[in-house]
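Honest question from a wet-lab person: if I give you the sequences of every part of a complex, can you actually get the arrangement of the whole thing, not just the pieces? Trying it with mine:
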Amino acid sequence: MEQQQWTRIVGAATRAPSIHNTQPWRFTASGDSLQVRTDPARALHALDRSGRQRIVSCGVAVEFAVVALRALGSTVDVEVLPDPADPDLLATLTVTGRQAVDTRAEELAAAIDARHTERAPFLPRAVPSEVLDRIQDTAGELRVWSKAIAGEDEEVTATFLVSRAEEIEQREPEYLEELQQWMRTDPAAADGIPVAAVPAEDPAVRPSNWLIRDFVVGSRPAGSHRGLDPDAPPPPVERPAVVLLGTDGDDRRDWVTAGRALGRVLLEATSSGLVASPLTQALDWPATRAQLRSRLSLIGHPQMLLRLGYPSEDRSPSTNRRPVSDVLTFD
Ligand SMILES: Cc1cc2nc3c(=O)[nH]c(=O)nc-3n(C[C@H](O)[C@H](O)[C@H](O)COP(=O)(O)O)c2cc1C
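Yes, you can. This is the full assembly:
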């Protein structure tokens, strides 16, 4: 592969979502291979002590690189954690040959650029069950399970744990300081979360049980997600599908694989006209993560809670990435 082609592939890989847009990855291209490593210097020590969400983020980048390679007509072999002595080397991708490019490969690659996290309210339109089935099949191809949070009991459990985790976070000075470090007021900043991508949580326009992460701490009045003005006419209620992705095990290999499945699910959802935003607060803390597992009687480990729905006209802006030259080296 030419250097120019690797630059293009890594450009696609870095469009991956990452926790707080930390972009915790590095790439080395050599001949027909691409190594994907995690960059521990970009770890979130308060929110993500184990590094799980950092590795999941890198797993998405692995999958976006695979999708971009397939759209160029390459067949690709992926080896996860190829060197036990080097755990930061998360995957090696090797181009093994050529194949005809089908429309599906092109659609998925186009979804890489079209996707971004959408935290604004969704349209009051339910996600059809066929789409949720497709998402389940997509994750299942990598042996990652997907469970729609359905029915009142499950919804109450999950929303309670998300709110509980938010409360814990608001009381953790280290968490708040770290969050502050990754918020960006300069819209041209190459990493972190631009304030414009985080719409204010206004109960008048967002009647939902599902709390998005409170990025601008203190902006949300206590209990605002339930505190609608009783005299105001009811606004349209968003009807997100909320999907939990999980794995049987919970080690580095499972995290990379969960990230790859998340990447596929997000592209599948985007190409079906959906948008998504992660709601991972309940998974940040071992206690709420364990409670989610036991109260939903899950066999295995939750890795990602995703809110999915149809976007309204007011799309939030997409976020920036560091230049490829900062993260790609040639061997
Ligand atoms: C593992 C992981 C966890 C995330 N958790 C949250 C979350 O709890 N709340 C949220 O609003 N966004 C969450 N995000 C989305 C990131 O903030 C987002 O991907 C990043 O800012 C880049 O923006 P983009 O997805 O629009 O490209 C998460 C992303 C990943 C990969």
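Two things worth pointing out. The pocket of flavin mononucleotide is lined by residues 17-21, 53, 56-57, 60, 116-117, 119, 193, 212-213, 277-281, 318-319 (CB under 6 Å). The chain has two domains: 3-115+323-330, 129-309.
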